[in-house]
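Retry 2 of 3 after timeout on previous attempt. Resubmitting structure tokens to design endpoint.
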């Protein structure tokens, strides 16, 4: 176990054993930071600070470089995420077709703000720039399931279903 006091003054204890396999697998690969981060995130569900520190140490690179890569790419997450990820498209077509109203309805039903994860780790709600389904605007992606042509009422119905079906 590695104990790390992060910037917010909270102590975070993380079992680094799952990370060791990843680091050993990529030990001789000079440019493998992104695959290491991807596999570490797969192991932990996100990238806790002690994991980033251990990666920097093992790869003999500054923590700032690891952090820079982890914060540059949107695929990486530095905080725990919900079991169900809800992505609300806010691209131009979706915005014009009613994404703000869909967002209000969904966040009301899921009791979670955009950009946040619920305290019980059931949901993470994200606003995204585009999901590539402009003809179905406004669009919401729940996990791997795409829902299009939503309005406030259908978004509320979707939110209620997602709330009911996501395990506690």
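Retry 2 succeeded. Sequence:
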């Amino acid at each position: 176990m590695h104990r790390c006091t992060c910037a917010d003054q909270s102590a975070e204890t993380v079992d680094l054993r799952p990370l060791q396999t990843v680091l050993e697998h990529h030990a001789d690969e000079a440019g493998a930071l992104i695959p290491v981060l991807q596999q570490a995130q797969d192991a932990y569900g996100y990238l806790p600070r002690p994991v980033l520190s251990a990666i920097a140490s093992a790869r003999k690179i500054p923590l700032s470089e690891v952090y820079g890569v982890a914060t540059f790419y949107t695929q990486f997450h530095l905080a725990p995420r919900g079991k169900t990820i809800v992505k609300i498209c806010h691209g131009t077509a979706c915005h014009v077709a009613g994404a703000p109203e869909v967002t209000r309805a969904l966040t009301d039903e899921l009791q979670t703000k955009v950009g946040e994860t619920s305290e019980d780790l059931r949901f993470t709600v994200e606003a995204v720039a585009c999901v590539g389904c402009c003809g179905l605007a406004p669009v919401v992606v729940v996990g791997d399931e795409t829902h299009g042509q939503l309005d406030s009422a259908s978004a509320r119905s979707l939110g209620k279903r997602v709330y009911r079906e996501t395990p506690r």
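Attempt log closed. The domain at 84-165 is CATH 3.40.30.10 (Glutaredoxin).
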